[in-house]
């Protein structure tokens, strides 16, 4: 059942402290910096020279976070939309690891991208929530995200667990291929260990309900982010349109001035995601939209006074490592979408035209 919540989506958002603890259990020790992934002991990926992620929808956004994490630590990595992978035909060889990110393990587009990679001679790995799923059975290897069953059509807790899993897998890959721990390994692992408590703090203190109400008569909702949280801007917009049926778009913060700024008016609130890295640049993008009269809602650390001073509203997140901040920001955006949809009386757990698992190409 829904455990006292009005919707599975809200229940699953609130389960994240627990599901994240399950995802992390036994896999990382911040004190020593050790990473212990059941099927992937040190050296597992020594032969790998590049990584490609294939996925759809929310899982694609998790893949984008994963390739940013790995790429910025020195291992070439790219993320592809699974439905585009066949037609964009990226080269693969036996030193390529192709990672299918799929909660259900049954998404047809992702399965066919993985089959194509396999036929090209790549090594394949499924990152999935479902033991015994087609992706888990067909790939050379599988990593389970252990989020527990997700009933709501909108993916919430599985996104958070995918990103954590890809960070752990990313650390393993970087160590095996680059040959040493990344410089900030211990900081990342302690930020991950703190994540369940940090998410709980957001759930306890969020103002997302009030912010959703304040902007509910808007024409359109824009989300911007840079670097590790560009995918969080995309995910914020996907979730928002999926369950509220309001128009929403996510942009790389730096791209606004290359076109989308033409759409910005006082009736288009802009949600700007900050991580503590590259904030100065995103702050100037925030000022660009403010100059056009748009309200700006910052999703940022409560300790960043300059951002707090400029924004019309702030959805705060606890201070953490910049590569982990996106998971926290995304929890605030999940709550924003949920409350916006609830106030509009939408059928949150079963949005029109959508299915939980898409088994046709
Ligand atoms: C959005 C959503 C979808 C899925 C996508 C991939 O909330 O749930 O975009 O993320 O259909 O599904 P999986 O991860 O099962 O391959």
Automatic annotation (TrEMBL):
Location of the protein in the cell: Cytoplasm
Leading EC class: transferase
Keywords: Aminotransferase, Cytoplasm, Glutamine amidotransferase, Repeat, Transferase
Residue ranges occupied by any SIS domain in the UniProt entry: 41-180, 211-351
Taxonomy, superkingdom: Archaea
Main location group: cytoplasm
EC nos: 2.6.1.16
Annotated GO MF terms: carbohydrate derivative binding; glutamine-fructose-6-phosphate transaminase (isomerizing) activity
Reactions catalysed: D-fructose 6-phosphate + L-glutamine = D-glucosamine 6-phosphate + L-glutamate
Biological process, per Gene Ontology: carbohydrate metabolic process; fructose 6-phosphate metabolic process; protein N-linked glycosylation; UDP-N-acetylglucosamine metabolic process
Cellular component, GO annotation: cytoplasm
Subunit structure and binding partners: Homodimer.
Biological function: Catalyzes the first step in hexosamine metabolism, converting fructose-6P into glucosamine-6P using glutamine as a nitrogen source.
Name listed for the protein in its UniProt record: Glutamine--fructose-6-phosphate aminotransferase [isomerizing]
Species whose genome carries this gene: Haladaptatus litoreus
Shown residues in whole-protein numbering: 246 to 606 of 606
């Amino acid at each position: 059942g829904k455990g006292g919540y009005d919707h599975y989506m809200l229940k699953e958002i609130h389960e994240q402290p627990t599901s994240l603890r399950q995802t992390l259990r036994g896999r990382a020790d911040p004190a020593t910096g050790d990473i212990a992934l059941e099927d992937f002991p040190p050296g597992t990926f020594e032969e790998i020279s590049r990584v490609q992620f294939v996925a759809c929808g929310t899982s694609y956004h998790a893949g984008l976070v994963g390739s940013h994490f790995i790429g910025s630590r020195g291992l070439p990595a790219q993320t592809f939309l699974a439905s585009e992978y066949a037609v964009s035909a990226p080269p693969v060889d036996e030193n390529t690891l192709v990672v299918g990110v799929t909660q259900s393990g049954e998404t047809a587009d992702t399965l066919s991208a993985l089959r194509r990679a396999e036929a090209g001679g790549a090594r394949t790995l499924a990152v999935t929530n479902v033991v015994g799923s087609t992706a888990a059975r067909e790939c050379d290897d599988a990593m389970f995200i252990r989020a527990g069953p997700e009933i709501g059509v909108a993916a919430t807790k599985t996104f958070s667990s995918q990103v954590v899993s890809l960070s752990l897998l990313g650390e393993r890959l970087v160590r095996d291929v680059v040959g040493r721990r990344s410089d900030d390994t211990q900081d990342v692992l302690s930020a991950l260990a703190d994540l369940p408590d940090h998410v709980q703090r957001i759930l306890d203190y969020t103002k997302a309900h009030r912010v959703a109400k304040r902007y509910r008569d808007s024409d359109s909702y824009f989300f911007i982010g840079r670097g590790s949280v560009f995918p969080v801007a995309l995910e914020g917009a996907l979730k928002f349109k999926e369950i509220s049926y309001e128009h929403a778009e996510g942009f790389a913060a730096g791209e606004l001035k290359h076109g989308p700024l033409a759409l910005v008016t006082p009736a288009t609130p802009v949600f700007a995601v900050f991580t503590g890295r590259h904030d100065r640049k995103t702050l100037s993008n925030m000022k660009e939209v403010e100059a056009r009269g748009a309200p700006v809602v910052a999703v940022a650390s409560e300790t960043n006074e300059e951002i707090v001073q400029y924004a019309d509203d702030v959805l705060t997140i606890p201070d953490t490592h910049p590569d982990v901040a996106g998971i926290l920001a995304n929890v605030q955006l999940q709550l924003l979408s949920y409350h916006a949809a609830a106030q509009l009386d939408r059928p949150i757990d079963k949005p029109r035209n959508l299915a939980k698992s898409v088994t046709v190409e």
